[in-house]
Amino acid sequence: MIAATKKIAGGLVATALVLGVAGCTASEPAKSPPAGGPNARKGAAEAPGSVNRPIGDGSTVYTGPQPNVVKPQKLKPGEKPPQFVVFSWDGAGEDSQKLFSHFREVGKKYNARMTYFLSGVYMLPEEKRFLYTAPQHSPGRSDIGFGDLQGIKDTATQVRAAWLEGNEIGTHFNGHFCGPDGGVGTWSVDEWKSEINQAKSFVKNWKTNAGLKQEEGLPFDYDKELVGARTPCLEGQKNFMLAAKGMGFRYDSSGISKQIWPKKTDGLWDVPLQLVPMPGRAFDTLSMDYNYMVNQSGTTSQGDPSQHTYWGDQMRDGLRQAFDRVYQGNRAPLIIGNHFESWNGGTYMRAVEESIKGMCTQKEVRCVPFRELVDWLDAQDPKALEWMRTLDVGEAPKEGWTKFLTAGPPAPPAAPAGVKPADGSGDEG
Prior knowledge:
Blueprint: E1 53-55, E2 60-62, E3 83-92, H1 99-109, E4 115-118, H2 149-164, E5 168-171, H3 189-204, H4 206-210, H5 222-225, E6 228-229, H6 237-244, E7 251-252, E8 256-257, E9 263-265, E10 268-270, E11 273-277, E12 284-286, H7 289-297, H8 308-330, E13 334-339, H9 343-359, E14 365-367, H10 370-379, H11 382-388, H12 401-407
Helix pairs in contact: 3-6, 8-9
């Protein structure tokens, strides 16, 4: 299991809206499904079975293109966009609760592929903790502890199988430091680069660091596969993005937004968590289990047991309301964040599982990882995406999607005769 020193690292709590987010986080290696097998999706890219090129010490192995991934297609003129839903997991790791392996099975059952933001220190054993030096902290410090040998082996098993099933392995970085005293929100661009490189290193060298050289490697080149992240407590996004855009990253999910279509910031897709309903309350909260919890039981994760069922239902129903208003409205992707934690009796894990079942089985819904979402966004006409961004939360095109997307944004008014256009183009007179 993950070392017992792991703990919740909470964030700031506002009266009406929780903005802080915690970063958290099988004995026989699971046999991955063959490319093109029962878990393959239509249009999926299949990994050649003959490719098996170890990288470095063999902790990672290039095995070819990821299987079970749907290639993006550009919308046809006037075509209604699909409803994307992204379920993501901060600090993904397999401990004694076995939640990583459980939700892999849930995903396969309900056709949901997800993003797992792996914490690098979960692949680093406690006795090697001094290999990690967090920015502004002494060597060997981590607010979520480190791995132990069984936890590292189990996490590697789940990461390996998850990737082969078409899920994404992102990063939640390492020590999960929050707040003003050396937290990630205080880090410079260069400090973020150090943190990113260390997170990669712990995944690329886990077999050597843990003395598990006989274990099977992870089936991907992490330098190429790692394209996205969520920062601890949603802090430090600006400098992280400045660092990440030159390091192979394509998106970030550390922001906060209402339920509208995402946009690019500094060359990266900004795909934030969203403000979603809190049923029975007069405010929205963030689309994450931790934020529902803090609005329900405050600073404790072990609140009144008599309220556990109600609290889980409240989260499930809030997420369903959020889903319904985009599914029937502007079709903006729904972004949901979670942790492999049994807070308040595991009620949020139940809520997430019921949400996956209720959403991912609907017509025209695609439950996909962030990577596949941004692949699709990149394949679209940027002007069409910007036009869809004009639709507000829950707002469907008044005259239908076909007319809305075919018409496109209105042309800018013509400049009066003799007046130079604002962009400086046109005749000089």
